[in-house]
Specification:
The chain has 186 residues and is an all-beta fold. Among the domains are: 6-52, OB fold (Dihydrolipoamide Acetyltransferase, E2P) (Beta Barrel); 65-141, Nucleic acid-binding proteins (OB fold (Dihydrolipoamide Acetyltransferase, E2P)), CATH 2.40.50.140. 0% of the residues lie in helices and 44% in strands. The chain contains no helices and 16 strands. The protein has strands at 6-7, 12-15, 20-21, 25-27, 32-35, 39-44, 47-52, 65-73, 77-85, 90-101, 115-122, 128-131, 139-142, 153-155, 158-160, 167-168. The protein has a 5-stranded mixed barrel with strand order 8-9-10-12-11. The structure holds zinc ion.
């Protein structure tokens, strides 16, 4: 199942019959072990852990695409954590936070916990501002149901929870939605 590989929150790591959940791993109602964090998969005997990646650093350039996780929603902006550069794909090794300003309509179409592909709008004075407005490839590539903690499935232009069947129309969805971006680095 890929010891050492990077896993995303909600990713299935195995079943309870095979493995014991360790740190940052939870078991859902159906006996599936899933990652609670963005991190590196570790297996000790039959115990599965995820060591969280405490992300990034590196000077980011204007116009560059990055992978980020949405952390906090404030009145006028989101605070995000940038975890990787997109092309070529590279995980950042030290944490970098950024903002997404809600002044553009499309920039409101993300939610806390989402993993997004965004563009660097400004990186002056160590203050990184991202945007998902415009570019068709930009947007959410991973989201989970806040009620059920399971990854939402893309159905046309909407996201649907496979567990409670709720429909989510509040996201700008990237064509990369549902793919594990971390497999790009391999
Ligand atoms: Zn749900």
């Amino acid at each position: 199942m890929g010891e050492g590989r990077v896993v995303i929150p909600g990713e299935k790591l195995g079943v309870i019959e095979e493995f014991v959940p360790g740190e940052n791993v939870y078991v859902n109602g159906r006996g599936c072990l899933r990652s609670e964090a963005l991190g590196v998969l570790r297996i000790t005997r039959n115990k599965v852990h995820v060591s969280p990646i405490r992300s990034l650093e590196i000077p980011l350039k204007f116009g560059e695409l990055v992978l980020a996780e949405v952390w906090v929603s404030e009145t006028a902006r989101f605070i995000v954590k940038i975890v990787a550069r997109w092309h070529p794909f590279k995980l950042l090794t030290n944490p970098v936070s950024g903002w997404i300003m809600k002044d553009e309509e499309e920039n409101k179409l993300i939610r806390v916990g989402d993993l997004i592909l965004a563009k660097v709008e400004s990186a002056l004075y160590n203050q990184i501002i991202l945007s998902i407005a415009g570019g068709k490839e930009l947007g959410v590539i991973y989201a989970k149901c806040l009620k059920c903690s399971v990854p939402l499935k893309k159905l046309g232009n909407t996201l649907v929870c496979p567990s409670c069947e709720s429909i989510h129309l509040d996201r700008k969805i990237s064509p990369y939605y549902g793919t594990n971006p971390f497999s790009r680095g391999e």
